[in-house]
Amino acid sequence: MSYGTDLADSYYRIGVYTGLILKGAKPADLPVIQSTKFVFAINLQTARALGLTVPPDLLSIADEVIE
What we know:
By secondary structure, this protein is of the alpha+beta class. Helix content is 42%, strand content 19%. The radius of gyration is 18 Å and the shape is rod-shaped.
C-alpha cells in the first residue's frame, strides 16, 4: 500500500511556479504550496505473495489497485 501526493498535480504546480518566475516574480515572494491531492494505491499481487488478505472495504476506497 502507498499513500502519497498526486504526481500529476505536483507537476502542474511546478509548471505554474516556473511560469510565474519566468514572468518576473521573485522566488522568495512566491507562497509555499502544500499538496492537497493524495493517491491511495494497493498492490494486490505483492499482498498475495506475502500471504496478506486485503479487505474489500479497503479495496473500495483505493484510488488505484494494481493486480
